[in-house]
Target: BGH3 protein
Amino acid sequence: IVTVNCARLLKADHHATNGVVHVIDKVIATTTNTIQQIIETEDSLETLRTAVAASDLSSLLESEGQYTLLAPTNEAFEKIPRETLNRILGDPEALRDHLNHHILKSAMCAEAIIAGLTMETLEGATLDVGCSGEELTLNGKPIIANKDVLATNGVVHFVNELLIPDSAKTVFELAQESEVSKSTDLFRQAGLSSHLT
Model:
């Protein structure tokens, strides 16, 4: 699937006497802002703006190149426990891994993302793309709230749920999501959960 500034190419290579015509499915708007400028001006990305500033990723997001940012909205940050959020925001390494897990190495418009695709993030992990009806899913969840916000150096999709990589989780959080969750409960009952967090 070929896109032009996130407009889908419907028919290509119509030759005319004075050139070539390609038919697309929407009007292409002028794009002037970088990904960083979109973060700075969008009210629903206020928490992300703070996180990006704390992680020193702003230089990457305003640099030349082509990236895809899966931008967590304020709503996405509100869904996780305050204790977990404060821990990630207070740990520069975990915060950087967390944000890099929301950035893809190339610009991917929604039209060009095919279900069954595995996409690699800057953090080094992968995201599985699928579909639920007409909605795209990431790791099985239809969490894309707003898609195809174009920037001069890529594209932004707003997501309403955080994608937290394993590298930004504590041992306790990883264990709770795995086959050893019962063992985790025993550690907690024994008063040893602080060692896992």
